[in-house]
Amino acid sequence: MQLFLANPDTIEDVFLRRKDFPKPVHMYKMLEIFGRNVNTVEGQDWVRHRKLTAPPFNERNSNIVWTESIQQARGMLDWWKDYGSNGVRTTAKDAKILSLNVLISAGFGMSYPFASGRDPPTQGFTMSYQEALSLVLEYTLVIVALPKVLLRLPFIPEAWVRAGQATIGFQRHIAKMVDKERSLISQGVSGAASLTSLLVRGSEEARRKKAHTDQEGNAPNGLTDEEIYGNIFLFNFAGHETTANILTYSILLLAAHPQWQDWLSEEVEHVFGGEHGGQAWTYDKFPKLKRCLAVMLETLRLYNPVVAVPKYTDDRAQTIYIDGSAYVIPPKTLVMLNICAMHTNPRYWGEDSLNWRPSRWITTSLCDQKSGPQEPIEQETLFEPRKGTYLPWSGGARVCVGKKFSQVEFVAVMAVLFQKHRVEPVMETGESVEKARRRVVGVIEDSLLRMTLQVRDPTLAAISWKKR
User: Fold this and answer.
1) In whole angstroms, what is the distance from residue 70 CA to residue 264 CA?
2) Which of 177, 197, 377, 455 has the fewest other C-beta atoms within 10 Å?
3) Which residues make beta-bridge pairs with 455?
4) Rounded CA gap, 25 and 15, in Å?
5) Nearest Cα to 62, choosing from 234, 193, 241?
6) Residues 291, 366: Cα–Cα separation, whole Å
7) How many helices (H) and strands (E) does the chain have?
8) Alpha carbon of 233 to those of 129, 195, 239, 260: distances in Å?
9) What angle in degrees, to the nearest 10, is found between the helix axes of 158-186 and 195-211?
């Protein structure tokens, strides 16, 4: 039995009652390719995983994300400009390359130029970490659906064979990195701010504390090697395609609605004073780029990667309240918190709730008397939606640990792309500008849900980048 909920107060109540409405982790077992992770466990196991997986997503790591995202975006923009008036049809593919490279830098401390191609294999490996991770993410569904032994048989597609090899290679690379980090710990060498380093060190510290507690175990245990591998895979799986897809949607939407490009450029120019690079582009500028973040928030509102958040009543009936009336939900009921309904309800988003309008996220605050006169753009603040009406990163205790990571990456990319450049659809023969824009909107609206929501065929929308 399934029940869909679209009431904000009830949704918030379900989030708060985590023990009454646990996550149906059986639906996520396919993500245990390399081991259990924070997304596939519940109860005390989840508490242990959460305590060790949340701390790596800190300000030190966000600084890495910011710096790497700027570097990658500049490389991607240069790549796109080379296409000239013929336009780019690889927006989605290139966004995935950018997202992958940011993940590798923030996750493992390795940096690759955007257009560098494949890194040669490390000695003793058949493929580089970059290639192994890329293949694992591209063929996750195949890897999940087929036993590993089948991926070695001669009659299956060659690409699947490579995916099987990548699965083995990815785990070997991770194991080597984990061993290296433990060696540094034993030598008393401080670690980097990468997700892998912080995760391994946090787990080892938990093990050390556990060894000094009584037999009842007052301190949580660390993660097993398989759980470390599983969580590292999850970080990459959850952060790669989702961010890349949102970048793709946003860029195509901006191409179809050019007035918002000018709106973005005004903010970026104000924050950076016209400086294209150098010392001005520091992480402390991130909170000032509210319009850039508003584009992400609005795109997620209408094109969220997942359409619902699943919960479960398990073995007991549960009572919920909707507008003062009590409803009893039977045991073993799958409760779906309806993201699509909440994100488009006119009651909370206005009569234009189905329209993409980033400015709905910006409000103008009153002038601060202490700080003196301010320019209008400096008085802008982000709109806070009513609780339960906006759920792109889920909610409650299980809110996505990578929320800030994705926001920093997206904002940095938007700032680079639209500071000095604009994007427009490439017109087909006999097509007007307006018709070309409507065609791009049609490409966007032709979306489908694979593992996440994505544009069915983004190559149908050729777009060209030009200097302002």
Assistant:
1) 16
2) 377
3) 447
4) 15
5) 193
6) 18
7) 15, 11
8) 12, 11, 10, 36
9) 50
The rounded Cα 301 to chain-centroid distance in angstroms is 14
Question: What residues form DSSP beta bridges with 423?
Answer: 465
d(Cα 222, Cα 55) in Å, to the nearest integer?
Answer: 14
Residue 8, both tokens: 């904000």
Length of the chain: 468
Side-chain-side CA neighbours of residue 16 (13 Å)? 9
Q: Which two tokens stand for residue 423?
A: 């994007």
Backbone angles phi, psi at 359, to 5 degrees: -70, -15
| Residue 437 Ramachandran class (φ > 0 left, ψ -120 to 50 alpha, else beta) | alpha
Coil vs helix vs strand at 254: helix
Rounded-to-integer distance, Cα 426 and Cα 461, Å? 8
pTM exceeding 0.85 = yes
C-alpha 127/C-alpha 178 separation (Å) is 18
What are 451's two structure tokens? 């593992």
pLDDT in tens, 154-210: 788 999 999 999 999 999 999 999 999 999 999 999 888 899 999 999 999 998 887
Geometric angle at alpha carbon 239, from 380 and 103, rounded to 5°: 100
Cross-strand bridge partners of residue 467: 421
pLDDT in tens, the chain (468 residues): 899 999 999 999 999 999 999 999 999 998 999 999 999 999 999 999 999 999 999 999 999 999 999 999 999 999 999 999 999 999 999 999 999 999 999 998 888 899 865 566 767 778 888 899 999 999 998 998 888 778 878 788 999 999 999 999 999 999 999 999 999 999 999 888 899 999 999 999 998 887 776 555 555 689 999 999 999 999 999 999 899 999 999 999 999 999 999 999 999 999 998 776 667 899 999 999 999 999 999 999 999 999 999 999 999 999 999 999 999 999 999 999 999 999 999 999 999 999 999 999 999 875 544 444 457 898 999 999 999 999 999 999 999 999 999 999 999 999 999 999 999 999 999 999 999 999 999 999 999 998 899 999 999 999 999 998
CA-derived radius of gyration, the chain? 23
